[in-house]
Structures are given as C-alpha cells and as structure tokens.
Specification:
This protein is mainly beta. It has 2 domains: 69 residues, no CATH class; 68 residues, no CATH class. The chain contains 2 helices and 8 strands, in the order ββαββββαββ. A 4-stranded antiparallel β-sheet has the order 1-4-3-2, with no helix packed on it. The longest helix is centred in the first third of the chain and has 4 residues. The two termini are 15 Å apart.
Length: 142
C-alpha cells in the first residue's frame, strides 16, 4: 500500500529509491511536517507516483512535491543456517571491519535487537566475510 509524503522537486522521479533519514530541525515550524515525517527512519522507499501538487519548502530550493511511495523490504546479511519462511531474531555480528564492502548490509540500522523478522527471500550468492562469519544476503519483513 502506498504512502503519501513530500520530497524535493528535483528528486521527485517515478521509480527513484531513497532512504528516509528522519526529521530535521529546519522543518520544526512547517505546517506540512507531519506529511514529510510520516515515514520510518533509515528505511528504503521507492517513489511509485509523482503528483502535480507542489509546496514551498525551506529545505528544498525548488520546493517540495507530493509523491506516493512504497516501503521496500529490509535487506541485510544473516547467518547461513537460516532459511526462507523462518521467523527469527537477527543477531548482529560484532563486526569492526568498516572497510568491508558488506559492512552497511551487516550493520543495517533498521534491524532492532530482540525483534523477530520473517525471512522472505534469500539471494543465492555466498558472502565472503573477512571476519569469517558464514553469511547470506536476505530480505526480511517485520
């Protein structure tokens, strides 16, 4: 189901993906902030429709436009022992290898401790981990 939000006009393009980082101080007095801040922080979204309605905005130079967005699944690295359909708490590895290509996937900020996620898809490729963990790339649902 689509959600409605506002985004800078230059960024408002159908099929474009973005990460919502959360509310910012410059918007605290804006009458439209509830529309902008209705997404989940650190989640990935895809614009599925750009509407014709435009608003003045203190953050975006050319103003903000109304868009419909779809929340994308959570993608992260999980233990190779886990399988599709299982519902589990995703254990975060104690990874200090910040130069690793997969660091942001392993340390996905969306994953919360003590919360169970359902594994909906596993991407077939093995992940080479410099720390020696047996990992696979997976898609999760809350």
């Amino acid at each position: 189901m689509a959600q409605v939000t506002l985004i800078g006009e230059k960024l408002a393009e159908k099929e474009k993906e973005f990460i919502y980082l959360g509310p910012i101080n410059e918007c605290r007095n804006c009458k439209l902030k509830t529309v902008c801040f209705n997404l989940k922080p650190n989640r990935h979204y895809k614009i599925i429709k750009v509407r014709d309605k435009k608003h003045n905005c203190n953050v975006f130079e050319d103003g903000a436009v109304v868009v419909e967005v779809q929340e994308l699944p959570i993608v992260t690295l999980i233990d190779k022992k886990l399988s599709i359909g299982s519902k589990t708490i995703i254990e975060k590895n104690d990874c200090k290898s910040i130069g690793c290509f997969h660091y942001t996937l392993c340390n996905n900020k969306v994953i919360k401790k003590e919360k169970k996620y359902k594994i909906t898809k596993i991407f077939g490729k093995n992940i080479e981990c410099p720390m020696g963990y047996n990992l696979q790339k997976a898609e999760l649902k809350e």
